[in-house]
Amino acid sequence: MIHFSAIRRRIVEPAWAAWSASPLLKYWHDLERTQHLSPDEIHQRQMSKLAGIVRYAYENNAYYRQRFDEVQIDPRGLRYPDDIDRIPLLTKTDIRQHRDLLISNGYEKRGLMEARTGGSTGKSVYVYFTEDCSEWRNACARRHDRWSGWEVGEPKAYVWGNPKYPTGLKNRLKTFLLSPVLYLDTMAITKGSVRKFARDWRKVGPTLLFGHAHSLYVLAKAVMEHGIDEIKPRAIISSSMTLLPHERILIERAFGLKVFDRYGCEEVGLIASECEVHEGLHINADNLYVEYLNADGCRSTSGQYGKLIVTDLTNRAMPFIRYQIEDMAVPHDGACPCGRTLPLMKEVSGRIADFLVRRDGARVAGISLIENTLTRYPGIEQMQIVQHDLDRMTLNIVRDGSFGEDVVRCLETSLCDMFGSKLDITFSFVKEIPPEPNGKYRFSICRIRES
Predict the structure, then answer these.
(1) pTM score > 0.85 for this model?
(2) Is the pLDDT at 381 greater than 90, yes or no?
């Protein structure tokens, strides 16, 4: 079905956009141009949008009017970006407690699109936005999807938890006409489901394989172990969780392609993506303003971990201004050899809740700990670290035949050296580590509440 992609792109989609009055194509064409503006132009556009959304929220949103008045600031007099840190952070708790107050004047929830996120916390956060805002986000994603080698109109395959199949006649027709999709549910990746996925692949003919990072790794392992060669993407994008180096290597070996890593969230959409150079992730600066804060609340410098703070520059129905996304990332000041001038993020290091805590208060990136463990000790297929308190951990381990008691002793010694000699470690050997309800895997879980 690949040969139909040009017809979809050149004839069907423009006709659909005209019939449905969708702004997607206009937004996409504009975004293809803005990724090559000068860094100064990109920054100036960002600052103009930032000032605009802050002023709009103050004048049209009861929640922000109240918050700004509490700290006695008038956003109309702020300088950007120098004064941005005077604006209070927005947290997930704030959103849950003030959901209705966060809807701007002139909008009603029943007339807005709704998205829900909760992840592993089990506490949902509801996000509302207009259909126009949704099309803008889709255009942003399309621009970054094309970096991988996928082209508009070509079918896509998703390795995803609880797949969202199109509902309603209009959405099903739109998917069929514009970009057919194929799903492999990450909640049940088995030999049988992968073989069925391969059979369906031949029928649908996807060119892009898109999925949770670890789920793509599980699929790649199954493809290699069972000799399945029908799954032949021309592009691979990983998303939704940290892509470990050894996982990237195996995925690329299994499919003979480079993986393009992607970072985003339900609340604000696509945040950053790798390009073909693979030396960091380009920030979606047309839609977001990104900050990195260290433990003292000051801005992190290039190369340092920082709490990620994002401002959505386009969602006026429910503004997200200085939203503490609860992830950690590393800024990067360099320019990319690819020629695109969108600013770079060096790496995303996972959720704050996935950083483990030492007795001296220092944080340890759980994802890095897991990666070092998996590559250092034999016999470990998969591992998850759960830190209950400063002195107590559980290691959930999926082992193979080469795992020995010496590995247990080495793990115990290594973790005690890092976290303290009094560390109480429970080893739990399991057949599998199941994904969270949203289909993602958590490699490290910190149950210590942040003070």
Answers:
(1) no
(2) no
